[in-house]
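ugh ok fine here u go
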Amino acid sequence: MNAAGHEATFLRNSGLATGSADPVVCMYATESAAILVALDGDMKKLAQSYGMGAGRFRSLNLLKLSCPEPRAASRIKEALSLIEREWRIGEGCIRRLFVEVQPNVIRTVR
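structure:
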C-alpha cells in the first residue's frame, strides 16, 4: 500500500508467470477489478482492439505509460488526482478506465 492508499501487485507476485501472454494478463486484471499499469506498447493496441467497444476486454482498466520508464513514477504522481477522478466517475458503471500518460500529455478516454 502506498501513501495515497493504493495497493499495487506486480506481475511477478500475482501468481501469473512472468512473460504471460498479454490476453492472460488482461483477463487477470479484469477479473481482479484492478487497473493494469503497462509500459508495454502492445497493451494499448490490445486494449483498443478489445476494450473500447463490445468485446473480450471491454471492462479492462488500463493505465498506459507511454513515457520513458525512468519518468514513469513521477508522471503517475503528477497524474494521480486525474486517475483517481476518472476511477470515481466510472464506479458502478460497466465503463472502463483508460488513461495514457505520455512525456508531456495525460489523456483519458471515456
